Amino acid sequence: MIEINHLSKKYRRGGWALNDVNLTLNEGMVGLLGPNGAGKSSLMRILATLVPPTAGEATINGIPLSKAEDIRGMIGYLPQQFQVYPQLTGAEYLDYVGAMKGMNDRKRRKTEIDRLLEEVNLQDKAGKRVRTYSGGMKRRLGIAQALLGSPQVLIVDEPTAGLDPEERVRFRNLLTRFSLGRIVLLSTHIVADIESNCRQLAVLDRGRVRMSGDLAELQDFGRGKVWEGIVSEEQFAKLDPMSVVSTRRSEQGLLCRVIGEAPPSGSDGVLVRPTLEDGYLALLRTSQRDGVFGYE
């Protein structure tokens, strides 16, 4: 379990990145959802003991963040900006990381590295130098290094960046398998990354927690606020672009899906069942409208 109590982070020039964050995260896949700049990476870096909080506290499996060495021994971490040694091969890099993690049995270390390379579909590139890898391949190598040593808690920040659709599915399935009996905290701004795999989620918006719970709770934020209707191009030009979720051309005009208290002006719009993304967007619009930004 990860328990976060009144956690805040303030940077000298950037203001409040996190403001009074309170969360309890349980076993399984946990999604941390929010737009760019919401404070997700700051929270991840604090939990990984890379930066200290300005105020508040957190514990991982009962151990406070102040005991950094104990925390680092139980977590795997993939940062948003993942740096590797370009002169090493993929296998050499993982062997180096494994040794740094205290995996001293070389035979066991090699067995686990071979398994992980296959899991992330890099077994054919294991002997190639990392400098020859594509961005997506480097990302998969980062996933493998985070999984080395079977950590009790896995923290991954925007892990699907640079991955193609097939790789994204493979990665999400890999994390789901790994989350059995563990906590996997997945930070993303892409709803699809958490839609089919996460049991619990939290939404951050400009440093504050806007909601936490299950996926159905987030979806409910869109109930009674999602409309579909056909409008002309002239009518479409007058719509608030922030309210439009999607647009598709039809013989009668533009079929628009919008979020709001009323259907698109001039259309015969009808209420429709919200998707998870609709609920997320409706929540963010409420946050922005109410001025809940988390900064001072």
From TrEMBL:
<dbReference type="GO" id="GO:0005524">
    <property type="term" value="F:ATP binding"/>
</dbReference>
<comment type="similarity">
    <text>Belongs to the ABC transporter superfamily.</text>
</comment>
<keyword id="KW-0813">Transport</keyword>
<dbReference type="InterPro" id="IPR017871">
    <property type="entry name" value="ABC_transporter-like_CS"/>
</dbReference>
<protein>
    <submittedName>
        <fullName>ABC-type multidrug transport system ATPase subunit</fullName>
    </submittedName>
</protein>
<keyword id="KW-0067">ATP-binding</keyword>
<feature type="domain" description="ABC transporter">
    <location>
        <begin position="2"/>
        <end position="231"/>
    </location>
</feature>
<dbReference type="Pfam" id="PF00005">
    <property type="entry name" value="ABC_tran"/>
</dbReference>
<dbReference type="InterPro" id="IPR027417">
    <property type="entry name" value="P-loop_NTPase"/>
</dbReference>
<dbReference type="GO" id="GO:0016887">
    <property type="term" value="F:ATP hydrolysis activity"/>
</dbReference>
<keyword id="KW-0547">Nucleotide-binding</keyword>
<dbReference type="InterPro" id="IPR003439">
    <property type="entry name" value="ABC_transporter-like_ATP-bd"/>
</dbReference>
<dbReference type="InterPro" id="IPR003593">
    <property type="entry name" value="AAA+_ATPase"/>
</dbReference>
